[in-house]
DNA sequence: TGCACCACTTAGAATTATTCTAAACTACTT
DNA sequence: AAGTAGTTTAGAATAATTCTAAGTGGTGCA
């Protein structure tokens, strides 16, 4: 049967992280549904609601580790506002400035042509497109 | 003779801002040369070096006012790192992640095609392209 | 199964970026 | 010159994030 509960502990081990109670709980909330955009604060709230004790410092630690391991990517949309994104594939974002919502859109229909060569001595890391909209 | 000292006071008045000692000094540093990318902190340091007393709070106030008046635009590149950009025309950025540098590149050679329609009930505000590179 | 070790978690303090408060000051109007 | 509203400022406050140092717990091995 497809969609059976994935083994989060194994996924964490594969990323070089011990599957602790806290990290497994965080991974479950992050990865068991569809793609998500969370903040440290919102994720902290969600995990605590599942009755797993976890501190905000641990949420920050885990988010940074998950990002470094390639399980998440970070999207900075405004000063002091960064989202962690469970969609690590190529895609871009709509940011609704008036209410802070972030929405994905696929990059396969989008063409970015004519980008100049990176400055001398640098290698391309990522291209971020944020389409800012307002209500 | 071209390039004679522009009237910063007049420019501020035109933007609906009183040309105070502090704002004129800030405007001079920002606008008298070519385009710049500054942080509140770096601008504060530069203006103080010209022997004009100014507090960091005033620098933040002025930067926000200049941005709201369309004299500057703000570019957020990383959590807690935002630049104010004296180039308000259409252009995009290289961000050198390894050393925090921000460089402009013109948008006229760049084509972004196939952007999906904005989410229901929203209007486009701006499209930001940040090309992240590393040394 | 029991330990030992070291990675991990945590409360709380610290740091950093930014904004706020309320009192003093100043550019502009009259 | 005086009045007034806009501006500046020191310092406190807030918000996001990181750090410290002490305790806890996975894991590999006896
Ligand atoms: Mn956050
Ligand atoms: Mn800054
Ligand atoms: Zn996304
Ligand atoms: Zn620029």
List keywords for this structure.
homodimer; 135 residues; alpha+beta; Arc Repressor Mutant, subunit A; 7 strands; globular; binds manganese (II) ion; binds zinc ion; DNA-binding
Molecular structure report:
2 copies of one chain form a homodimer. Chain A is globular, with a radius of gyration of 17 Å. In chain A, the strands form 2 sheets. Chain A has a 3-stranded antiparallel sheet. A 3-stranded mixed sheet of chain A has the order 5-4-7, with no helix packed on it. Chain A has helices spanning 8-14, 21-31, 40-49, 56-68; strands at 37-38, 73-78, 81-85, 91-96, 101-106, 111-113, 123-134. In chain A, strand 2 (73-78) and strand 3 form a beta hairpin. With 135 residues, chain A is an alpha+beta fold. Strand 7 (123-134) of chain A pairs antiparallel with strand 7 (123-134) of chain B. The structure holds manganese (II) ion (2 copies) and zinc ion (2 copies). The structure holds a DNA duplex (30 and 30 nucleotides).
């Amino acid at each position: 049967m497809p969609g059976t509960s994935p083994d989060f502990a194994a996924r964490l081990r594969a990323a070089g992280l011990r599957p602790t109670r806290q990290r497994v709980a965080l991974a479950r909330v992050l990865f068991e549904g569809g793609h998500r955009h969370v903040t440290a604060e919102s994720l902290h709230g969600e995990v605590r609601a599942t009755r797993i004790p976890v501190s905000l410092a641990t949420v920050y630690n885990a988010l940074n580790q998950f990002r470094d391991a390639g399980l998440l990517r970070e999207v900075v949309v405004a000063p002091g506002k960064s989202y962690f994104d469970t969609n690590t594939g190529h895609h871009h974002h709509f940011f609704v400035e008036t209410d802070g919502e972030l929405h994905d859109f696929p990059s396969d229909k989008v063409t970015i042509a004519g980008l100049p060569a990176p400055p001398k001595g640098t290698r391309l890391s990522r291209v971020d497109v944020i389409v800012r909209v307002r209500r």
